[in-house]
From TrEMBL:
Keywords: Carbohydrate metabolism, Cellulose degradation, Glycosidase, Hydrolase, Polysaccharide degradation
Database matches in NCBIfam families: BGL
Active site (catalytic residues): E171 (proton donor), E354 (nucleophile)
GO molecular function, one term: beta-glucosidase activity
Protein name (Swiss-Prot/TrEMBL): Beta-glucosidase
Catalysed conversion reaction: Hydrolysis of terminal, non-reducing beta-D-glucosyl residues with release of beta-D-glucose
Family matches, as SUPFAM superfamilies: (Trans)glycosidases
Superkingdom, taxonomy of origin: Bacteria
Source organism of the structure: Undibacterium fentianense
Biological process annotations from GO: cellulose catabolic process
Length: 449
């Protein structure tokens, strides 16, 4: 790997470096300030759903400690902060009245970021649907897309000229498949047909929201954040190659094709019961809205084997604490691939909106020595630089995550943060990776000047 200065020099001068979080994972204050329950409140309080039997009631207490956390971002020397809004904090029922106390929290956060010259990147939906809407059918109810568009319009009207960007959804694949297909995530449904319909309603809500926000004539860039991966056949057998192509179609292309081509991929459609997949005639035109940016989240590749038992990858760089293969080269291959496939179809500039590693961090004295995370960051930064050199228009990178946090159904057992959180005292302690990242950004900014 190149040393820090050489690596920093591989990025264009205006490249944006930031960190990312999400509302339910860090905010806490679950019942304060007029906030109503979301599906994750309900799910995490259901016995057996979270590995350590925890919930997000307190999490990182960011609701009360946001100023401290903004100070950490500033001290890291970063340009940008990507966060999400708790929909049920600003609109408790997901429709109807707005909660001004909740709105004021985000106003204070955005102001604190502005005072430190940190650009605010807002995500409207990071999986925490108001429970009131779930009781009306949630994302299986087409009307939820209309409610989402009105929510987006209001947030854009209030904050759109104070934000660098607004993303409609974070990882709709997870909302659809993990929330409604396998039941691992809220709301905990296990119905593959429902998952397909939810994915369509999510995309529809995205298109409606982009239209509603465009009408506000705001300065914020508008886009969506998709989790993506390469799908690599374990062998060159016809069966493995076909299975890998289907995996790519049902994951990456399932969301990219409607946005950039105006239709779902035929390879994926061929395997579903279309009589139970309801799409109105005008839907695809609504979904296919021009975007200002595309957010790409990358953590691992899909390694596809049709053998019994299936082959597993060698994982030469090891596994993260989530059990995910560390495969940095998949990031550059993914980026170059989607650039080649969609560059003539309106593909906008790309931001890497999430990339990071869970490590079993140990607090030793007042230090956390996470050399594996530093190596992970270096390798993935190098792959982004490789994609830029190949002609992909990538304008920024947001590390996941600023803080250790509530890691969904893993509870507090997995730590992704640059900053260690003692969940009892709420102390924040910089890991070695945070110190390394600050040094890297300083070297990058020296080049920028």
């Amino acid at each position: 790997m190149p040393e820090q200065t050489a690596l920093a020099q591989q990025f264009p001068p205006q490249f944006v470096w930031g960190v990312a979080t999400s509302a339910y994972q860090i905010e806490g204050a679950a019942t304060e300030g007029g906030r109503a329950p979301s599906i994750w409140d309900t799910f995490s309080h259901t016995p057996g759903k979270i590995l350590d039997h925890s919930n997000g009631d307190v999490a990182c207490d960011h609701y009360h400690r946001y100023a401290e956390d903004v100070e950490h971002i500033a001290n890291l020397g970063l340009d940008a902060y990507r966060f999400s809004v708790s929909w049920s904090r600003v609109q408790p029922d997901g429709s109807g009245a707005w909660n001004e106390e909740g709105m004021e929290f985000y106003a204070r956060l955005i102001q604190a970021l502005a005072q430190k010259n940190i650009r605010a990147h807002m995500t409207l939906y990071h999986w925490d649907l108001p429970q009131a809407l779930q009781e009306q059918g949630g994302w299986l109810n087409r009307q939820t897309a209309q409610h989402f568009a009105r929510y987006a319009q209001e947030m854009a009207a209030r904050f759109g000229n104070q934000l660098a960007s607004i993303a409609t959804h974070n990882e709709p694949w997870c909302t659809a498949n993990l929330g409604h297909g396998t039941g691992q995530f809220a709301p905990g449904m296990q119905d593959e047909v429902a998952a397909l319909q939810v994915s369509h309603h999510l995309l529809l809500s995205h298109g409606l929201a982009i239209q509603a926000m465009r009408a506000q004539n705001i300065s914020a860039q508008l886009g969506i954040v998709l989790n993506q991966w390469t799908a690599d056949p374990a062998t060159d057998s016809e069966a493995d190659c076909a299975a890998a192509a289907w995996e790519y179609a049902r994951s990456v292309q399932w969301f990219m094709d409607p946005i950039f081509r105006g239709h779902y991929p035929e390879l994926a459609l061929a395997k579903i019961d279309r009589s139970r997949f309801l799409v109105e005639p005008e839907d695809m035109q609504v979904i296919q809205q021009p975007l200002d940016f595309l957010g790409v989240n990358y953590y691992f590749r899909a390694y596809i084997s049709t053998e019994t038992p299936p082959r597993i990858p060698a994982a030469t760089l090891g596994l993260t604490d989530m059990g995910w293969e560390i495969y940095p080269e998949g990031l550059s291959r993914l980026l170059i691939g989607i650039h080649q496939e969609y560059k003539d179809l309106g593909l906008p500039p790309i931001y890497i909106t999430e990339n990071g590693m869970a490590v079993a961090d140990q607090l030793v004295g007042e230090q956390i020595h996470d050399a594996a995370r530093i190596d992970y960051m270096q390798r993935h930064f190098q792959e982004v630089a490789k994609a830029i050199a190949a002609g992909v228009n990538i304008q920024g990178f947001f590390y996941w995550s600023l803080l250790d946090n509530f890691e969904w159904n893993s509870g507090y057992l997995r730590r992704f943060g640059l900053i260690y959180v003692d969940y009892v005292s709420q102390r924040r302690i910089w890991k070695d990776s945070a110190i390394w990242f600050k040094s890297f950004v300083q070297k990058f900014k020296t080049r920028r000047r």
